[in-house]
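Postdoc handover notes: sequence design on the structure in folder B. Input tokens:
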């Protein structure tokens, strides 16, 4: 087996392991820790896919920036949703 195929095979089994971890952790009552843990595992899987299967690590810098730009917008979205959640209940509704 040549080196690139061997590496992709290792990445494939790592993704399967992370999938098994996700399924196993979904059966464990983790409370508020479940969400951040699931997002961390999902981020690891996304990094493995983008870096190795999409071969972004060998692409020019401009293409890497374009591929990573949606992460900025996801961060903005999460920040706005978090701000909305924190403000609930602290802002009174006029007329009520």
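Designed sequence:
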């Amino acid at each position: 087996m040549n080196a690139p195929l061997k590496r992709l095979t290792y990445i494939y089994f790592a993704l399967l392991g992370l999938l098994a971890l996700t399924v196993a952790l979904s059966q464990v009552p983790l409370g508020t820790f479940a969400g951040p843990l699931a997002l961390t595992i999902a981020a690891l899987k996304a990094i493995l896919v983008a870096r190795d299967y999409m071969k972004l690590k060998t692409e020019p810098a401009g293409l890497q920036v374009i591929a990573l730009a949606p992460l900025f917008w996801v961060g903005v979205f999460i920040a706005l949703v978090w701000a909305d959640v924190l403000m609930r209940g602290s802002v009174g509704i006029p007329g009520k």
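Context for whoever picks this up: The helical segments are 3-26, 34-53, 61-87. Don't rerun without checking with the PI first.
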